[in-house]
Design goal:
It is a single chain. By secondary structure, the chain is an alpha/beta fold. It has 8 helices and 7 strands, in the order βαβαβαβαβαβααβα. A 7-stranded mixed sheet has the order 3-2-1-4-6-5-7, sandwiched between helices. Helix 3 packs across helix 6 (170-178) and helix 5 packs parallel to helix 8 (225-246). The longest helix is centred in the last third of the chain and has 22 residues, at 225-246. The chain is globular and about 55 Å long. The relative contact order is 0.16.
Length: 249
């Protein structure tokens, strides 16, 4: 049975060169929730075109799936903001973001949405549960970012700063993104939760498994260790400056 169409909460999936996994992720999400909106962020692997064909050739899907295509790659945060602006204009109040690469648990979408409906002033954050396939360097490395995020928010309740499976209040997230030029690429997820915390949005954490797909399973990763960790380091330097200014209050 298809999920009923929500008028307040939607699933927002930014995608860049996600290959065949994009369609699989979208189909898994559609089995749990509607509407699903996908922002194709300048992909060059034809995954966006494949999704548009799926939309055009599947009867009854036009009200449950929307595909927004950006002509050039601008980064995850920029793609999310593009979706947020369109969602807000359409009257939606909350967006659950999930990655297109199959790492996030689509079957938990209803639980996260239900929690958000009951707590509309909060951000609902996934707390990752790793399996044996998770790269150890990624698991240990994220603890560094999490420690900084907890310090920057004085341990206000953020259990994981990097896991992108979460529900945001749209207007709050739009407001903090419009105030500065950062949060447009890989730095989006951790900076969003820190700045939302500063903005007064409380965090509710729910456990959610993470699945790292192998290349044979269609897994796609755009993580670059040096580039992205440099970006995260610069981000936390900015946030620490903001933390120091806010500390007296």
């Amino acid at each position: 049975m298809a999920a009923s169409i929500s008028t307040s909460h939607l699933v927002l999936i930014p995608s860049y060169n996600s290959g065949a996994q994009l369609l699989t992720t979208v189909q898994s999400a559609l089995a749990q929730w509607a509407p699903i909106w996908v922002v194709v962020d300048g992909s060059t692997d034809q995954s966006g075109q494949a999704l548009l064909r799926y939309l055009a050739n599947t009867p009854g899907l036009e009200n449950r799936l929307r595909v927004i295509v950006q002509p050039i790659n601008q980064g995850k945060g920029a793609a999310v903001l593009e979706g947020l602006d369109a969602a807000h204009a359409a009257g939606f109040t909350h967006a659950l973001t999930m990655d297109a690469d199959g790492q996030h648990p689509a079957h938990l979408i209803p639980q996260f949405m239900t929690t958000s409906v009951a707590n509309p002033d909060a951000m609902i954050l996934g707390k990752p549960v790793f399996d044996a396939a998770a790269p150890r360097v990624r698991v240990y490395g994220r603890e560094i970012s999490n420690t900084w995020a907890k310090l920057e928010t004085l341990w206000c309740g953020i259990e994981d700063s990097l896991y992108g499976f979460r529900v945001y209040p749209i207007t709050d997230l739009q407001a903090i993104m419009r105030r500065q030029k950062w949060m447009r690429r890989f730095d989006f997820d951790p900076e969003a939760v820190v700045r939302l915390s500063w903005h007064g949005v409380r965090a509710i954490n729910l456990p959610a498994p993470v699945r790292y797909l192998s290349t044979e399973e269609g897994g796609v990763s755009h993580f670059r260790y040096l580039r992205d960790n440099t970006l995260l380091t610069w981000m936390h330097m900015r946030l620490l400056c903001g933390f120091a200014i806010r500390l007296p209050s």
